Amino acid sequence: MYDRDFYLANCNKASVPKFFETIDIVDEIVGEKKWELEKKMNKYYVSYKYGFPIVFGVTWMGGKSFGLFFKLPKEKAESIVIQGIAPHRYEDEWKQILYKVEKPSSDVRKLIPLFDAAFKHITGIEQ
Predict the structure, then answer these.
(1) DSSP states of 64-121 as a string?
(2) Is 38 within 8 Å of 48 (Cβ atoms)?
(3) By the 8 A CB rule, do 114 and 80 touch?
(4) C-alpha angle 51/52/55, rounded to 5°?
(5) pLDDT the model gives residue 3
(6) Could you tell me which of 22, 45, 49, 102 has the fewest CB atoms within 10 Å of its CB?
(7) How far apart are alpha carbons 33 and 12 in whole angstroms?
(8) Angle (deg, nearest 10), helices 16-33 and 112-123
(9) Is the pTM here over 0.85, yes or no?
(10) What are the CA-CA distances from residue 5 to residues 2, 103, 122 (Å)?
(11) How far is the C-alpha of 41 from the C-alpha of 19, rounded, in Å?
(12) Which residues, other chains included, contact 7 with Cβ-Cβ below 8 Å and sequence gap of 6+?
């Protein structure tokens, strides 16, 4: 069972509340957009899935830090520029771009263009 208690036992206790704050904000965005995505808690990440494929998620980058990932082709991911926040890296193996989250309350909503692009890329649905 991957829940708050699991993460508190296995990750930095100071980071876990911000991790869940980030998940709550992503849940709000998914709800506002009326996207029918399944949220799945995993050992090292939380994914938002459209059927089988993952669209985006929140992932641990170590014991203390975490970020948001978006399933996008490299060219598309790199073409989206977000003012005030730079990508951490593009992960070729997973075909996703990763952004480190420092302050969930200000960082997550800045990334809405990436949420939109990943949703469109995976589902083919226009906004």
Answers:
(1) S-EEEEEE--HHHHHH---TT---SEEETTTTEEEEE-S-HHHHTGGGHHHHHHHHHH
(2) yes
(3) yes
(4) 80
(5) 94
(6) 102
(7) 32
(8) 60
(9) yes
(10) 8, 22, 31
(11) 12
(12) 16, 19, 20
Place of tokens 């830090």: 65
What local confidence, expressed as pLDDT, does residue 28 receive?
Answer: 98
73-88 as b/e: b if 16+ CB within 10 A: eeeebeebeeeebebb
Task: Name the β-bridge partners of 40.
Answer: 47
Strand order in the sheet with 66-71: 38-41, 45-49, 54-60, 66-71, 96-100, 89-91
The 10s digit of each residue's pLDDT in 15-48 is: 999 999 999 999 999 999 999 999 999 999 999 9
Rounded to whole angstroms, how far apart are CA atoms 17 and 50? 26
Place of tokens 């641990």: 60
